[in-house]
C-alpha cells in the first residue's frame, strides 16, 4: 500500500473518529454554498430587474434639442457612430380630425424610423402606427383606415400597427405616428447609446452640435436606493461568501488544533509536512469543499430559472461561488500553519 493511499485512509479515519465535528463542518459548508446562490440570485435579480426597467424607460437615451433647425439626416447618421445603438429625428407634429371618428381630434407625429424605434422601444418600423392609449380610446387596430383632416388637404392612411405602451415618451401613447425620410429639418433628435457607452456618447453629442443645442438624458439619473452600478459596487452578497467561508476555515483550524497531540504523533512516526498537508487536504475536501460544491449545486437547481434568465445574475453568482471556494481552499495551509505555531508538534507532545 502506497504512502499516499495510507494518508488518505488515515484522513478519512480521522473524519469518522470525530463524526460530530465532521457533520457540523459538512452541514455548514453545504448551507454556505446553498445560501450563497439563493441570496446572490435574489439581490442580483433585483439589480437586473432595476437595470431592465431603467433601460425600458430610456436610461441610455439622450435628447438633443436646438432652437435653430438642423438637418434630420445628420441626426439619423449618428446611428453609425461607435457606441450609438440608434438615432432618429422628430420631423413635424400637427393636429388632425378623423373623418371616421366624428368629433375626435388627435395629434399626428411625423418622425424618422430611428426616432420611432427609440421612442417606443421597438425593433420594427411600421409606416403608420397608433399609440397604445389612442388605439384603445378610438378602437383602432391594424388595418383601420383613417382620413386625417389637418390644415392642408385630407390625408388617408391605413394603420399598420398599434405601438406598445411607452415609458420613454408618455405623450407618444396618444398620437398617430407616421414615418418619414430624414430629408427635412428638425429641432429634436433622440440618440440611444450602447450599454456602457453612455458617457462617451454624451461627450460626442456635446461636440457634434452647436453651443445652442441642449443634450439631456431622457430619464433622470437620480434613483432611490442608488443606480444599478452603485448597487453592484455595494452588493452585500459579493463578499458575504468570503466572510462566512473564512469563519468556516477558522472552525476547521480550531477543530484540528484541539487534536494537536495526535498530529504530533504523526510527526514522530515520520510523517513530514507534505504528508500532513496531504491529510489535511483530504479532510478539508471531504468536510468542506465537496459539501460547499453540493450546496451550490442544490441552490443552482432551485434557482436555475432566475440564474439563466440574465447574464448579470449568472456572472454574479459564479463570482460569489469562486470567491467562497478560493477562501475555503486556504484551509489546509492555514491549518498546517496553526499546527506549526510555537514549539511545533513535538513540543506539544512533550507537554502532555
Which helices and strands occur, and which strands form pairs?
Layout: H1 3-17, H2 19-57, E1 61-71, H3 72-76, E2 84-98, E3 105-111, H4 113-119, E4 128-130, H5 132-138, E5 145-149, E6 155-158, E7 161-162, E8 175-179, E9 185-193, H6 198-208, E10 214-217, H7 228-233, H8 240-257, H9 260-268, H10 273-302, H11 304-308, H12 311-329, H13 331-339, H14 344-350
Parallel strand pairs: 3-8, 4-7
Antiparallel strand pairs: 1-9, 1-10, 2-3, 2-5, 2-9, 4-8, 5-6
Description:
With 352 residues, the chain is an alpha+beta fold. The protein folds into two domains: 3-53 and 230-350, no CATH class; 61-218, no CATH class. The protein has 14 helices and ten strands. Helix 2 (19-57) packs antiparallel against helix 12 (311-329). The longest helix is centred in the first third of the chain and has 39 residues, at 19-57.
Structure, briefly:
This protein has 352 residues and is of the alpha+beta class. Helix content is 53%, strand content 18%.
Tags for this entry?
disordered C terminus; 10 strands; 18% strand; 352 residues; alpha+beta
* Coarse morphology: elongated
Count of DSSP-assigned helices: 14
- The span between the termini is 32 Å
How much helical structure, as a percent, in the residues? Answer: 40-55%
Unreliable stretches covering 5 or more consecutive residues: 348-352
Q: What proportion strand?
A: 15-25%
- Counting helices, strands and paired strands, the structural category is alpha+beta
Taken in chain order, the helices and strands follow as: HHEHEEHEHEEEEEHEHHHHHHHH
Radius of gyration: 33 Å
What is the typical, i.e. mean, pLDDT?
87
| SS elements, strand count | 10
Main beta sheet: strand number and arrangement? 10 strands, mixed
- The overall number of domains is 2
Amino acid at each position: 500500500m502506497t504512502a499516499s493511499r495510507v494518508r488518505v485512509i488515515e484522513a478519512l479515519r480521522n473524519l469518522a473518529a470525530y463524526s460530530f465535528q465532521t457533520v457540523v463542518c459538512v452541514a455548514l459548508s453545504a448551507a454556505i454554498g446553498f445560501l450563497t446562490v439563493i441570496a446572490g440570485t435574489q439581490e442580483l435579480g433585483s439589480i437586473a430587474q432595476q437595470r431592465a426597467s431603467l433601460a425600458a424607460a430610456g436610461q441610455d437615451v439622450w435628447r438633443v434639442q436646438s432652437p435653430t433647425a438642423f438637418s434630420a439626416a445628420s441626426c439619423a447618421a449618428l446611428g453609425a457612430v461607435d457606441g450609438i445603438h440608434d438615432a432618429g429625428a422628430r420631423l413635424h407634429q400637427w393636429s388632425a380630425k378623423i373623418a371616421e371618428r366624428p368629433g375626435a381630434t388627435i395629434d399626428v407625429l411625423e418622425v424618422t424610423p430611428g426616432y420611432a424605434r427609440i421612442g417606443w422601444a421597438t425593433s420594427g418600423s411600421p409606416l403608420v402606427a397608433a399609440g397604445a392609449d389612442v388605439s384603445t380610446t378610438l378602437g383602432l387596430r391594424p388595418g383601420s383606415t383613417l382620413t386625417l383632416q389637418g390644415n392642408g388637404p385630407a390625408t388617408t392612411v391605413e394603420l399598420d400597427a398599434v405601438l406598445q405602451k411607452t415609458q420613454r415618451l408618455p405623450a407618444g401613447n396618444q398620437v398617430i405616428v407616421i414615418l418619414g425620410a430624414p430629408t427635412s429639418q428638425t429641432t429634436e433628435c433622440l440618440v440611444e447609446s450602447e450599454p456602457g457607452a453612455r458617457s462617451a456618447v454624451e461627450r460626442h453629442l456635446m461636440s457634434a452640435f452647436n453651443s445652442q443645442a441642449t443634450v439631456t438624458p431622457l430619464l433622470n439619473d437620480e434613483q432611490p436606493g442608488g443606480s444599478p452600478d452603485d448597487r453592484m459596487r455595494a452588493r452585500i452578497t459579493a463578499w458575504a461568501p468570503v466572510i462566512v467561508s473564512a469563519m468556516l476555515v477558522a472552525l476547521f483550524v480550531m477543530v484540528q488544533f484541539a487534536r494537536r497531540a495526535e498530529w504530533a504523533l504523526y510527526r514522530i512516526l515520520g510523517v513530514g509536512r507534505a504528508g500532513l498537508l496531504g491529510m489535511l487536504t483530504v479532510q478539508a475536501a471531504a468536510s468542506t469543499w465537496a459539501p460547499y460544491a453540493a450546496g451550490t449545486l442544490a441552490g443552482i437547481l432551485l434557482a436555475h430559472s432566475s440564474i439563466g434568465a440574465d447574464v448579470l445574475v449568472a456572472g454574479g453568482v459564479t463570482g460569489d461561488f469562486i470567491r467562497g471556494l478560493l477562501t475555503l481552499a486556504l484551509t489546509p495551509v492555514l491549518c498546517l500553519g496553526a499546527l506549526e505555531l510555537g514549539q511545533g508538534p513535538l513540543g506539544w507532545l512533550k507537554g502532555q
